[in-house]
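Example 3.
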Amino acid sequence: DSGVTQTPKHLITATGQRVTLRCSPRSGDLSVYWYQQSLDQGLQFLIQYYNGEERAKGNILERFSAQQFPDLHSELNLSSLELGDSALYFCASSVLGGTSTDTQYFGPGTRLTVL
Amino acid sequence: DQQVKQNSPSLSVQEGRISILNCDYTNSMFDYFLWYKKYPAEGPTFLISISSIKDKNEDGRFTVFLNKSAKHLSLHIVPSQPGDSAVYFCAAVNQAGTALIFGKGTTLSVSS
């Protein structure tokens, strides 16, 4: 158990809908990262938050957004969902972020299926 | 363009033997690398890391080797155990230190 929790574990929804994925980092970690794992693309970095502020953006679509709250939990919002958004979404956390040696610990993931 | 490549999608090894998983990268500015292990229905679990100032790092049965000139790293597992059967991901930390760039993974199967 990494100490990172994600809810829900599974989510099934329809195209055009909007969903929210939730992540609670390990105790004491200030950075939260979101990754998407699809069959053909592997694990891809989406976005990082550090202590409530956006720090880095990766391959995140404009239809997707995230935020980190004062209690450091984070939410990833996916809207106008398309079939191709079906994937595993992982959250990771680290103590600081922004230093190359800061190890990221991953949650169990949320499996999103868009029908 | 893939910056971190794991060219072998799968590897089968017998229990007790050595498992060698390989990873290549293209960006010579990468200076920190990690290996993660992933079981089905779980998130990636951190295994071992190596900084570019070293060429080897060891942790129990796991050793990672880094060859900077060849832009190549490898993970050695000795001896391999059936519980090691999983997908292994190689990752590099991006230059800003803000994200991991992953390879596509190698599925290791250890038979008893």
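Chain A has a mean pLDDT of 94. Chain A touches chain B through 28 residues (CB under 8 Å).
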